[in-house]
Design goal:
The structure is a homodimer of 679-residue chains.
Chain A: E1 7-10, E2 13-20, H1 36-40, E3 56-59, E4 63-68, E5 76-80, E6 92-94, E7 111-117, E8 121-126, E9 132-135, E10 153-158, E11 161-169, H2 173-184, E12 197-200, H3 207-220, E13 226-229, H4 252-261, E14 265-271, H5 281-284, H6 305-316, E15 322-328, H7 354-375, E16 382-384, E17 396-398, H8 405-417, H9 432-443, E18 448-451, H10 465-469, H11 477-508, E19 513-515, H12 516-519, E20 533-535, E21 539-541, E22 550-555, E23 560-562, E24 568-569, E25 573-578, E26 586-589, E27 592-597, E28 609-616, E29 623-627, E30 641-648, E31 652-659, E32 666-673
Parallel strand pairs in A: 12-13, 12-18, 13-14, 14-15, 15-16, 16-17, 28-32
Antiparallel strand pairs in A: 1-2, 2-11, 3-4, 4-10, 5-7, 6-9, 7-8, 8-11, 9-10, 19-20, 20-21, 21-26, 22-25, 23-24, 23-26, 27-28, 29-30, 30-31
Helix pairs in contact in A: 2-11, 6-7, 9-11
Chain lengths: 679, 679
Amino acid sequence: MCGLEMEFVSSGIWKLRLGTPERITPVSLQEKEILNEGLEKLPSAHYPPISEKEIQFKVTRRGCVIELPLDEKEQIFGFGLQFYSFNQRGLKKQIRVNSDPVADTGDTHAPVPFYVSTRGYGVLVDTARYVTFYCGSHSHSRLTPDAIESPNMIIEVPHVKGVDLYFFSGPTIINAVQRYVLFSGGGCIPPYWGLGVWYRTYALADQEIVHKHASYFRSTHIPCDVFGFEPGWHSHCYSCSYQWDLKKFPNPDRMIMNLNELNYKVNLWEHVFVHPTAPFWQEIRKYSGNYEVWGGLVPDFTTEARKIFADYHEKNFLSKGILGFKLDECDNSDYRPKPWSFPEVTEFPSGIDGEQMHSLLGVLYQRTIWSIFQKHNKRTFCQTRSSHALASPLPFVLYSDLYNHQDYIRALLNSGFSGLLWSPEVRNANSAEDLIRRIQTAVFSPLTLINAFQMKNPPWLQYDIEKNNEDILLENYKELEHIVRKLFELRMSLIPYLYSAFARYRFEGIPPVRALPLEYPDDANTYQIDDEYLLGDSLLVAPLFAGQQSRKVYLPNTAWYCFWTHQKYEGGKTYNVKADLERIPVFVRDGSLLPLARSLEFIKQDVCFEITVYIFGEKPAEFILFEDDGETYNFERGIYNLVKLVWDPKEGGKINRDGSYSGIRYKIIEWKRVAEDSL
Amino acid sequence: MCGLEMEFVSSGIWKLRLGTPERITPVSLQEKEILNEGLEKLPSAHYPPISEKEIQFKVTRRGCVIELPLDEKEQIFGFGLQFYSFNQRGLKKQIRVNSDPVADTGDTHAPVPFYVSTRGYGVLVDTARYVTFYCGSHSHSRLTPDAIESPNMIIEVPHVKGVDLYFFSGPTIINAVQRYVLFSGGGCIPPYWGLGVWYRTYALADQEIVHKHASYFRSTHIPCDVFGFEPGWHSHCYSCSYQWDLKKFPNPDRMIMNLNELNYKVNLWEHVFVHPTAPFWQEIRKYSGNYEVWGGLVPDFTTEARKIFADYHEKNFLSKGILGFKLDECDNSDYRPKPWSFPEVTEFPSGIDGEQMHSLLGVLYQRTIWSIFQKHNKRTFCQTRSSHALASPLPFVLYSDLYNHQDYIRALLNSGFSGLLWSPEVRNANSAEDLIRRIQTAVFSPLTLINAFQMKNPPWLQYDIEKNNEDILLENYKELEHIVRKLFELRMSLIPYLYSAFARYRFEGIPPVRALPLEYPDDANTYQIDDEYLLGDSLLVAPLFAGQQSRKVYLPNTAWYCFWTHQKYEGGKTYNVKADLERIPVFVRDGSLLPLARSLEFIKQDVCFEITVYIFGEKPAEFILFEDDGETYNFERGIYNLVKLVWDPKEGGKINRDGSYSGIRYKIIEWKRVAEDSL
């Protein structure tokens, strides 16, 4: 397009200003700085991946339209936490936040106007509008009967007279994702405890039930690090009072202290809608939108509302020992019988309208909550039901009330393309098998969460909600409890491995969960595989769904070892893999060092993991453990160690610890060469 | 709102111009004139139903927003062919055309930006945009904790800087609907044959199967008036060539002649997307949009394209004896895995964009096809899959690929609020019972259509598609055939009654199918009843669904008689009504004269109905039969008769024929007082 020029942003990142963009956009509100030191380590890129000349732009009555070329073979992925489709080539997606998408329209809790191509580039449309992407779905009318036109990527941004596009170079698709994440400020690193097991308790629980549940894990030695409260803790909820219901919880401060003494981190549910009984209602009113939700105000967190809300949370929660929050309903609702969230016509004091606020609210809310933890140099790991662009630095994991297991896996794969974290949380189940299959997925995910808000007892004692609440337990609950304990112990043993994956997320922009095309963009076999994924550097996970005794697993080109039996598989093939109830297909990449820790019941402040390093293949690559205090942001100031594990076939294992952190988090107790069927 | 003033349009109709409206709107494209003579007969209204001062208007970055007051009790209905909700109070509806709505979002084949209120008024938002209505679903933020705000009707029109609102006065809700229909140009009157039974044949049929099916009805004496062809008749389809497939149909002209000789009217399936093999592709190309659908052009019917398309149809179809068309896929697609229709960013030669064209295409396509019949002063009755505002004069009935029987009934009720006609067509079924229940609904609807496009045999010979196509017929098909024949004979006997209902639609704006709140707006019991309706002046129909042996029927305040047994029921009560397979609950209003004709197998040009007049109640109101040639538009020039039926308890039945039509269509052969249980 004539007259336009790409502007260099940082290594391999260009910006193209088309027309006159709006004032409020994801990039304009961004608070984290670009992680340039990470970008500089990526392959250099001298030219933008798409040239200005190939780009069409026009302003219409509806907004503006951009067309970008697509070649015949390239495949498109991304658009945030999509549930219903994986490969986006040929599809239409409207990037609109919604809690209950019912079809593959683009609606999701975390829509992101960003996509990547197997041709090795990414494109961010910097807008808080409900932008629509036609991913090669429509062809221009042909000029003559025989002259068939090849379809473009068509992007429509409504209501604007212009927009900034950001282009992220490769050369490979993963490099484009890395650049996007580093442009966002890098990925988050959770505290060690965030990678343990989370349990959210019964919504109707009182202090007694809380105590019972908290004791349960410790007495059964089932690992659990985080104890979460659901809506019932508020004195008024839907909308929120942000005050304890003193009838159910006569002494919340002591209860929290008790939970802390039992080595639980405490997490509180809330949403953003401020009920008139909230102590700061009067103060925050003038900084809120002009429509209510469930009788509560909607604060505009780009104004003074942020400080009012944050200060209240700091004083009343953080200072009392609360280490995290679950931010519910910051998305929107269009597919429910009655719409509950604020309308798109809402006006906010900053000038943001309802559409923009719907896109941004999740991110603004996360930043507001995160700010109090940052202020105290304390890491947190939280949950959010909505997110958007540039969210990778935020220590929040997405969740949903949708509950289809296959869709949850697809969302897990898709989340990585947009620098998001997703928690396939476990609630109830249709059968013991369904429950275990869901827990297995959760164990191999960014957040292992059991949300028992509907249940008086943990779901493995009774997965049926009604029976559970009548205290009718399963006959074989001891058996299930045993399986669940083993799975959670496995989770705990993965923490050092996962923590290092998150360090790569932070410093290099590599998401901890990745779909296969991110690693194997030239392997067309991977383009439609929406049910297996890479977790960290070395593991390929292929979850099972209830009813499956076996499943097809495609192993890309390299050799792989079964995680459980160490049996070796040739790459580039599809296998029918059988599995029993206790295991799902998991494979270790040939040439990996896999550090697995001795399981702990919970993470203490002075945690030190006792690690066995498993050696897969003849010439394994080095593995770098990330080591720091695990609970502050001192690592941002360089206070951490890189613990390099190297295996030399002749000389054996070597450990090279480098950095300025003075503590020791990892003790290597054994190096173990795996042979086939060694377990 | 200051500075704005309502403009008088016609009796009880006002227009309020807000800001600067767009050039292309439903009213700007309207071709029929307001039917003022009908409006003048309605109760006079001296003031608009809502005053300018009560209306808020603002232009935003997204478009414009209007707020209208709602009182606490008023109920809202309308928005076109809604499938998933009936009473709209408290709901959000986006008026967007779509073929496969999956939730209650407002998407439908025929969204109409028009609603009516039980407070006795209607509002039309004159726009081809996807306007959103928040029907009292959201409250403004309160000023103090105790000052709860009452919600308004919020209307957001995207992408515009202004819009015209049209207000339709009552005093009652039916008057508001009447004014809207008369403003649209009045309702359509189908030819007599349009009210008979329609059969659409197997999509893969060749000439032989067509002959077999056409002979079937005549040999079994099952009434059938219209014979329809599905996509397979085109030499290329998806997109369309508009030429016969000569392999399947070596001599289409003769085949049509043969069908005509068998007294069938022939109807052809098509859609609007012009394949390169269509003879007029080259000619229409420059009058088409810049995106293709299924490789076909999308003509812009506000340009020369209309004449090209119409002329071709006139010459190649109308002149060969084709009397109607089925206009498929003129809606849109957003909930399918792959979107097939043109994108909203499409540009059309007239300056219409894709969004506007999606809203308008159904109506423009109908007008294009209708124009050739108008030119020849020949009435038609057709099918369309999309419609919009001001469509009541168009002789087209809506249909859908959705197939939930309950939703079909709800759509039937909703269609009346917006001056639309809807055909709950019958395809396949899950059981014989399901099939009969669906046919019963079709018999008591504006169009009785069996669409057997998936089946080699009529569905009552075998409702299961696979078995049907293997010619495995039901064991009891003779029994079903008998029931179906009886039902179709009932349909034929209703034609004079229905024809008169359509005359009221045309001249008075009263839709032939009406939900109960239209007649009983003060009866709150009717506000949620989405499964019973009034058909014409006297009948209340309560369809049954497969699996029901009985159902609850609310009879509003007046006495009612069972249509079948003549048993009398007090009004204002809910009854549990039992039914066998052959009958559904139908009631006749006390004080009615009900003309029922002797059934015919088909309508011939010189048809004369032999009528028995049933007398319900002591002092029945007069009934006016509408009489004309039944096939031309001469009635628009006043060439018709009103045949007034009057029952005097002392002197008996009187017939008063008045008008300038010289033919005789109705012969009253008997007057029959009904006593309870007289059948």
